[in-house]
Amino acid sequence: MYKQAVGYWDTPRHTALRIRYQLLGGLFFAVGIPLVLRMLAVPEVLSSSNHQVTVTAAIVAHLAGYVLYRRLGAYPGVAAAGAILPTFALTYGTVFLVIFFFRFDYSRFQAAGSFVMSTMWYFGWSFFASKLQPTCLAVVPAGDVGQVTSIGDVSWRVLTSPQRPSERIQGVVADLRADLSGSWERFIADCALSGIPVYHVKQIVESLTGRVAIDHLSENTLGSLNPNQAYLTIKHALDSLIAALALVVLLPLLLVVGLLIRLDSPGPALFCQERRGYQGKVFTIYKFRTMRVVEESGGDRLSAVTADSDHRITRLGRFLRRTRIDELPQLLNILRGEMSWVGPRPEALSLSRWYEEKLPFYRYRHIVRPGITGWAQVNQGHVSDVEDVRYKLHYDFYYVKNFSPWMDVIVCIKTVAVILNGFGAK
């Protein structure tokens, strides 16, 4: 047996202690400090009902934010500092929106202070954790493991013998389908029995890159090529409900944007185009027009591709594309059941036909409804080259394989960050 040495591995006990310190410290920092500062000015503040309501709401919002933040860590690149602000903005915004809706009296100082301190705490924790304890994984040198060591943001330790390494390791990566020797098999078994995570090489590559290779079709996490049918139905109902509410609220904005487009350049306010969608069916997508109406001589496929600094894009259109406001008319597509809020982006019919000829299994992405935003869009942005589309398909397949409410929440959070920094817009 390979005995586990304290300090070499992240054990469940160490993980539990780290979570306890992170959460308790966060609660004290986020809720306790604003409360103490308020008490210095008004000592009897704890006896007021509005402050009691605010403190309780801040605790609920902080706990919800922490759970969501931890849950997002199961997916690549989303537990980084960039996800902290939108995550806690979502939970604090939701909780205090409920309080505002029911007209409860609350302390604005405590609410705002708790939100600010929460984000500061986890920004600080994320920064120091990455500096003091970067992710380090051991690699069993057998089978097809060469691809993992080229992935960045991880310190890789290729083992030379089936013995524990001399530094702290967060897990072991092995090609579990390879023909391993008896000593390596015993080493892997002992690691698992000791509570050390053991990852199959394919699993860790998908997790760290957020992509699923498409050399061949394989089952998703439910053991089937088909995504969760129950969630497909529930998601469709929620999409329609939220789209109907959003359409009512945003109708004045839509009308103003449409008018500005007509004033900015000749042509209709809406751009309509046939695209390939759910189950391979063709539908008409609606967007705000962001390009000048001009004659194109490059063929249907070339006309459907938007290049960098495309001369056809209007001045207003560039702003609409950067902020993704041009996508808002697709609320109508959601209400018609043709699209979702989150899913693989639908391609123009001419492009879709071309990709189907060039790329195997391209049609599999149509197994879920296309979305206004998607996993590929928030990770890769706009693409037009065939090789780039291949990588885009890797992201689309990852989304289908991990099709779940959590995945959609992650895409929505990352979409907020994308809108703020303009990533991928053309």
Can you characterise this structure?
By secondary structure, this protein is of the alpha/beta class. It has three domains: 121 residues, no CATH class; 74 residues, Rossmann fold, CATH 3.40.50; 193 residues, no CATH class. The chain contains 14 helices and eight strands. Helix 5 links the parallel strand 3 and strand 4. The longest helix has 36 residues. It is flat, with a radius of gyration of 25 Å.
How would you summarize the topology of this molecule?
Blueprint lengths: L11 H30 L7 H24 L11 H18 L6 H25 L3 E4 L15 E4 L12 E4 L7 H12 L4 E3 H9 L19 H36 L5 E7 L5 E7 L11 H4 L11 H9 L7 H5 L4 E3 L6 H10 L12 E3 L1 H5 L6 H16 L3 H17 L5
Parallel strand pairs: 1-2, 1-3, 3-4, 7-8
Antiparallel strand pairs: 5-6
What labels describe this entry?
426 residues, Rossmann fold, four-stranded parallel beta sheet, two-stranded antiparallel sheet, 8 strands
Helix proportion range: 40-55%
Assembly type of the chains comes to single chain
Question: Would you tell me the structural class of the helices and strands?
Answer: alpha/beta
Instruction: Please tell me how large the radius of gyration is.
Output: 25 Å
Low-confidence stretches: 1-8
List the secondary-structure elements in sequence, H or E.
HHHHEEEHEHHEEHHHEHEHHH
Distance from N terminus to C terminus (CA atoms, Å) equals 57 Å
Number of strands: 8
Mean pLDDT: 80
The major sheet is characterized as: 4 strands, parallel
Give the amount of beta strand, in percent. Answer: 5-15%
Query: How many individual helices?
Result: 14
